[in-house]
Amino acid sequence: MRSKGSLLVAFPVILVVACGVGRDPGTTITLHAPQPDIVAWGDSLTGGHEGNVNTGDYPDDLAMLLAQTVHNEGIGGNTSTQIGVRQGGVATTATVAGGSIPSSGSVAVTFPTGYEPVTNQGPQNGTTGTLLGVHGTVTYTPNGLLFTRDTAASAVAAPNPAPFVVDTPYANDLPIFWEGGNNWWVPSQVQSDIAAQVATVKAANYYILSLINMNTSVLWKTGSDYPRVMALNNALATTYGAHYIDIFSPLIASYNPSLITDVSDYNHGEVPTSLRAIYGSGTLVDAIGASDTTLTVTLSGTSPTPGEILTIDTGANAENVQISSVSGNTVTVVRNFGGNDTSHPAGAPVTATDPIHLNADGYQIVAKTIDAKIAGN
Fold this sequence. Notes:
The chain is of the alpha+beta class. It folds into 3 domains: 4-21 and 32-82 and 170-246 and 359-376, SGNH hydrolase (Rossmann fold, 3-Layer(aba) Sandwich), CATH 3.40.50.1110; 89-166; 260-355, Thrombin, subunit H (Beta Barrel), CATH 2.40.10.170. Helix content is 21%, strand content 29%. It is built from 8 helices and 21 strands. It has helices at residues 44-47, 58-66, 80-87, 187-198, 226-240, 248-253, 260-268, 360-376; strands at residues 13-17, 28-32, 38-42, 70-74, 93-96, 100-101, 106-110, 127-131, 134-141, 144-149, 156-157, 162-166, 174-178, 207-209, 244-245, 276-284, 294-300, 309-312, 319-327, 330-334, 349-358. Helix 3 packs parallel to helix 4 (187-198).
């Protein structure tokens, strides 16, 4: 574990001359100013703890490696724009129902689509900020967003959409941005949103993390969308230089060569199955042949979900399949998705993994890659 003092920040060094008993009067003690906290901005990849087994998140791992506070500001489903709104770099406006902020209590508000400071996935306690000079909190309800002012006062007319200026309690922290997982297919928007956030940074440094792909054939390196993700990563690397951290390559390189499914993942140019979030495990109910695409499984901890990856069997017979549709415990799958496309006996073990998120082992690799970057600066 590296000490906090190894994180480079532009804070002054305080020199103290000590003349205590038993100490050379000329001894100089160097005291370093406290380091700033780190804030991790992102979506569910930053939020972490997907799956039911071996879960984790990279901000907690990074906090342990650096021995300092790392705030986890990852909210599932957020685009780079919604992250930017919460962070304060991307502007948004609110339309107040009825054209007036009441003297007390809550009022319904709407935001431009994609520019909401709160969604159904969070932040759980809402987002605080100021609307037409009134400070309050925007929260999510099943019926829409509400703005609740902090203190009672005169009603305020709000006939038109007005800026909602979010609070920025992490403005002086060192930020890490991991964004674009939910809107990478609009690269100009991702780049614009990140640039707007970087423009607000007050800390001595900041970092941009690369995107990673999900386990689906169009995002393998032979797939149609792989070049688009790589082009966005290359653009971020070019724009941000030493502030850019490639976490994609270390994750791919961390495949387990003894797992036939991981070897396939490596050849596909994607994060290995062994580092993906695990949702459940069980067995194959009936034997299947090498060409069968319908199978029945029993799973504990989860129900089969379209898009999930099922790893059937172990050792040389292990095979990854992708669920395309579900009817109870019977699923239709895409075969030849990794490993050995072969027959499997009834009772063969089955593991369900997420095609997007990481498990604790994957997040530790992300944290260690960031830690190494900070240590090298």
